[in-house]
Design brief:
35% of the residues lie in helices and 25% in strands. It is α/β, with parallel strands linked by helices. It folds into two domains: 201 residues, FAD/NAD(P)-binding domain (3-Layer(bba) Sandwich); 147 residues, D-Amino Acid Oxidase, Chain A, domain 2, CATH 3.30.9.10. Strands 3, 4, 5, 6, 11, 12, 13, 14 and 15 form a nine-stranded mixed beta sheet that branches. A hairpin with a 2-residue loop joins strand 9 and strand 10. Helix 2 packs parallel to helix 6, helix 4 packs across helix 11 and helix 11 packs across helix 12. It starts with 8 loop residues before the first helix and ends with a helix. The model has no long low-confidence stretch (mean pLDDT 94). The structure holds flavin-adenine dinucleotide. The site of flavin-adenine dinucleotide has 45 residues, from helix 2, helix 7, strand 11, strand 15 and helix 11.
Length: 423
């Protein structure tokens, strides 16, 4: 059956990948990784590089989840500003969080170069101010980042200069970060998978893992027609985490988000002259960028019910036309969507339970930080906990309401913030 939600530009332009066979036998390994998105692939690759025997289980195909469908926006940091992080956690912890989260771009860049991953990487990210007050806030953040953390790649873009980056949207200035950027996310995921295979990771696609069972000294996982015994397990299943670890599933809710890719645009360079990726500063934001073949890839609007709109392209188009009215009649070649795993406080949820490690809920800021999350889980498996603990010690709450009410209650909260955008 065609998958309406996964009919993406990325799938249509994915680089060649030899499908890996499902697991159908009993296997012993050092580390079992569940989930073949950025988090799981990065963890598996880093574990194998450290000499461990690694098996990765993916229920569908590599990059099937958010990693193969996202906006491709490489946004340094987390959903919180550094001023918020500093105020909440104090300077010492803030510095440790900064080093990992803002340093994630360099690690992703390193992976892309080291493994020669062709994923259309471009530098430059613009956060565009939707309201004048947002621009004031951005200027304070840029000054704080440079003064207190030495992050000086951020440039304040005055309202009068915004058209050096974008012609559309009537934004009130913005922040341009040369260390941000954009890429083709599915090709990055496939590149990581190829690098993982090259260092000996056994990848099994179309293999759904069941709940890991912690036995004395090892963890047992039934998976597809086979099974695994592993010394350590890494759960990297983001929105599906509740299926195999119901308790962890209560820390996130899935928010549906949709993207379109237009036909190649003759005037693409006029719309986005600096070729930066752009995200606006609203709670329910619009985000967009050009693909390598000069399509506009646009994400906008959110849905708090799982069922996709009947016309995904039409649903996103109206947001695109608000920003770029000249594209009202432009052909849309692809429309797709996926779920963003969101935590209560919008910070990633990482931790361990015995020999089972997990990371999920990157809250729309996962394209860069997932690679770091995978790498620090690999270090933790080998007993180096310092970087893992930086993330694992972030405070988290379950969504209230249990299995059935969590989603409607979270929806009410999200609708409130979405409404504030309009005021
Ligand atoms: C539409 C959309 C746009 C986004 N845009 C951006 C953006 O522009 N910038 C940004 O930073 N972030 C963005 N995000 C968020 C980002 O994509 C995610 O944070 C990130 O990809 C999460 O990666 P992951 O590896 O943790 O999870 P996923 O990529 O979702 O991978 C989880 C994998 O686990 C597999 N799985 C699930 N259950 C099992 C099981 N039982 N056994 C085996 N395998 C299983 C799934 O099939 C899936 O492949 C966006 C997300 C969406 C949906």
């Amino acid at each position: 059956m065609p998958d309406r939600l996964n009919d993406s530009y990325y799938r249509a332009t994915a680089h060649g990948w030899e499908t890996q066979r499902p697991l159908d036998y009993a296997l012993d390994c050092d580390v079992a990784v569940i989930g073949g998105g950025f988090t799981g692939l990065s963890a598996a690759l880093a574990c194998a590089e450290k000499g461990l025997k690694v098996a990765l289980l993916e229920a569908q195909t590599i990059g099937f989840g958010a990693s193969g469908r996202n906006g491709g926006q490489l946004i340094p940091g987390l959903r919180w500003s550094m001023r918020e992080i500093d105020a909440e956690f104090g300077r010492e912890r803030a510095k440790a969080i900064f080093d990992l989260a803002w340093g994630a771009g360099a690690r992703v860049h390193d992976r892309i170069v080291r493994h020669d991953i062709p994923c259309d990487l471009k530098s430059g990210h613009l956060e565009a101010a939707y309201k004048p007050g947002h621009f004031d806030d951005m200027q304070r953040e840029a000054a704080f980042l440079a003064r207190e953390f030495g992050w000086d790649s951020v440039e304040v873009v005055a309202p009068s200069d915004i058209n050096t980056h974008i012609n559309g949207g009537a934004y009130h200035g913005g922040l341009y970060d040369a260390k941000g950027g954009h890429f083709h996310p599915l090709n990055y995921a496939l590149g990581l998978a190829k690098a993982a295979l090259a260092v000996g990771v056994l990848i099994f696609e179309n293999t759904t893992a069941q709940t890991p069972v912690d036995r004395a000294g090892y963890v047992e996982i039934a998976a597809g027609a086979g099974s695994l015994n592993a010394r350590h397990v890494i759960i990297a299943t983001d929105n599906w985490t509740g299926d195999i670890a119901p308790e962890l599933g209560r820390y996130t809710v899935p928010i549906m988000n949709y993207n379109i890719a237009t036909a190649p645009l003759p005037n693409a360079d006029q719309l986005l002259p600096s070729d930066a990726a752009v995200a606006d500063s609203r709670f329910v934001l619009n985000y967009f960028r050009l693909s390598a073949d000069k399509r506009l890839i646009f994400g906008g609007g959110e849905k708090y019910v799982r069922r996709p709109p009947a016309d995904i392209a039409g649903f996103v188009r109206k947001h695109m036309v608000e920003v770029f009215p000249s594209l009202a009649q432009t052909k849309i070649d692809y429309a797709w969507g996926g779920a963003v795993g969101v935590t209560m406080n919008r910070l990633p949820h990482m931790g361990r339970k015995g020999n089972v490690f997990y990371a999920h809920g990157f809250s729309g800021h996962g394209a860069l930080v997932t690679t770091v999350a995978g790498e620090v889980m690999a270090e933790a498996v080998l007993g180096t906990m310092s970087q893992f603990d930086v993330f694992a010690s972030l405070p988290h709450s379950r969504f209230p309401g249990g299995k059935w009410l969590a989603r409607p209650l979270a929806t009410l909260g999200l609708l409130y913030y979405a409404m504030r955008d309009r005021l």
